[in-house]
Amino acid sequence: MQNRKLVDQRIVTTMRLIAIAGLFALTLSINLKPGVAQPSALPTIQMGDFFFAVPGGPHASFKPGTPAQNILTLSGGAKGKIELNVENTGNMLHIFLSPLLTASEEVKTQLIDASGKVVGEVESSELRELELQPKMKAKLEIMLADNIKESLARDPKLTMVFEISCHAEGHYEAGMRALITVAP
Ligand SMILES: [Cu+2]
User: Fold this and answer.
1) Domain of 91?
2) Residues 13 and 97 in one domain
3) Same structural domain for residues 126 and 174?
4) What does pTM read for this prediction?
5) Among 34-43, 44-53, 139-148, the least confident range
6) 88 CA to middle of ligand 1, Å?
7) Do 174 and 154 lie in a common domain?
8) Distance of CA 151 from the midpoint of ligand 1 (Å)
9) Higher model confidence: residue 163 or residue 8?
10) pLDDT tens, 144-178?
11) How far is the CA of 162 from the centre of ligand 1 (A)?
12) Rounded distance from Cα 145 to ligand 1 centre (Å)
């Protein structure tokens, strides 16, 4: 009877060990699963009625003649490629304008509607401004001009500041201007 109890106990202990090992294997297999696509966490510039902002940040609205404020620093300039979203969070058409576009070799643009669907794609070396209807978003891949890329690659402390503004009539005067910084 005593022996029988001991054997039972051993079986129970073994079963517990297997169960723990099983849990461990399960955890490992979960961790080893190939990565599920994450929603893109790109830096985002929001255009509202009449301000620029980054998600969760203050509304930057600066009238001509007053100093504009830096709202976003983008790193990766030394690699020559900057990726960001520009989003119209307002209720009217806004037209994104920036010398950063002019200083680029090429810009790939994906137009995304309010439901997250890609509704257009453009690759251009001549993109100077970007018209966005309300609730539309553009995902930009900006290939910087060689001289800018090389300058940033040469000096890790160098940063370049670009104005961003809205080209829709009266919006610049109404305060739609701010600065963004490109860092190595
Ligand atoms: Cu505007």
Assistant:
1) 44-182
2) no
3) yes
4) 0.77
5) 34-43
6) 9
7) yes
8) 32
9) 163
10) 999 999 999 999 999 999 999 999 999 999 999 99
11) 17
12) 27
